Amino acid sequence: MDLSLLGELARHIFLRVPETVIPTTTGGLLFWAVMLLVWTQYRRLATMERRIHGFVRNDPWVSTGTALVFGVVAGIIGSFLMIMLGITLSQDDIIYLWPVALALLLLNPRLLCFSYAGGIVSIVHLLTGWPPGVNPTAIMGLVAVLHLMEGILVAVSGHRVVSPVYLKNDRSAVVGGYLVQRFWPIPIMIVFLLQLPPEATLGGFSMPDWWPLIDSGAGLGEHWAYVMTPVVAALGYSDIALTEMPVKRARRTAWHLVLFSVALLGFSLWAAESPAVIFVPVLFGPLGHELMIRLSSGREFRGKPKFVSGGDGVMIMDARPNRPGQALGLHPGDTVVAVNGQPIASRSELNDATIFGGWYIELTVVDPDGHVRTLESNRYPPGQDLGVITAPESHDRPHVNLGGEGVLLRLLKRLRRRWRWRA
């Protein structure tokens, strides 16, 4: 593929992808509907933070805005990959994914993922022949590229929206952790095989002879042509960090997502050449994704918890904005071992030492990497605590139960309780 073709592709993608965010088109309306969905998820997270901690750590508008920026950039990169790999679809391949994905969202927010929706649509088609015109190989190729973009997004920004919480691990011990929830709208250029006038081509230029690698399944005739069209997808990432800091957790998860996407893409290319193995990518998509999540979360819940109080200092999980702890320079993962030279072993000792101290304060802190540093100030306001969230102690109760129920399940439970009360 020569440089002139790459330049033409780049120009076409950069011109077409922004069209998706213009609300005057059908695609634009869908994009902003997805943005509303993303904002709703971040608002739920903010509501939980206010209920638990009394303040909002992650402003839903800021989180939604950053998701928009990262999602558009990921969409441009994903568009290059989709076109360069020659993954082509038909309209029937994409039209059923969103309804299934939204239905799964109502059951559980973490199921807002095209690996599950694509797997369901593909399996139903292979077993029943419905919906007609669906090409499971192309769908799973799309899923592979989207998850590669998700891996990149998690590595770059997966740790940016986290909430400190207390919860129970597999040993029923209350431990601290960071709840991670990220959602991104992805406007991506997809090559469709459409029935058009003969003069219509792929954006007005020809591709190499080996292209496409994964075809839509329909034969080209005089009234068929490949056309690049922007489509809106959505990616969701939910995780919990109990044994390591969120940034390390995000990088580990990102690596797993990249391996998963490369394997799924390889299986899809294999199935494109050998249709007899079509069930390999179709089953690997949803089942491999679910296995990856369960193994990863099991490692966290069964591993040695990092965010607990052990009697040798008090670990800081978060510092509230515009409070003394943040002004002093405390960060998540720091452990306060002494205040004004006096050892600290519990949250109450930390509060007493800071609230009843004078204008001068000196904190001895150990950071997550084991480095000791001293934080001091001669303008500490008397009568105020640090304004920090600390790791749980033995008497603390969990904040959340990670059941992950969606709107539909919560509504059904509410109706069930109301029916029992009336009975």
Explain what this protein looks like in three dimensions:
The protein is of the alpha+beta class and 423 residues long. The chain folds into 2 domains: 3-302, no CATH class; 314-390, PDZ domain (Pdz3 Domain). It has helices at residues 3-16, 26-53, 60-85, 91-95, 97-107, 114-128, 136-157, 246-273, 279-302, 324-328, 347-355, 407-422, and strands at residues 88-89, 162-168, 174-195, 224-241, 314-319, 335-339, 342-343, 361-366, 372-377, 388-390. Strands 5, 6, 7, 8, 9 and 10 form a 6-stranded antiparallel β-sheet that branches. Helix 3 (60-85) packs across helix 7 (136-157) and helix 5 (97-107) crosses helix 6. The mean pLDDT is 86.
Helix and strand run: HHHEHHHHEEEHHEHEEHEEEH
The chain-level structural class is: alpha+beta
Instruction: Work out the radius of gyration.
Output: 25 Å
Number of strands: 10
β-strand percent reads: 15-25%
> Alpha-carbon distance between the termini?
71 Å
Report mean pLDDT, rounded to a whole number.
Answer: 86
Number of helices: 12
The level of helicity is: 40-55%
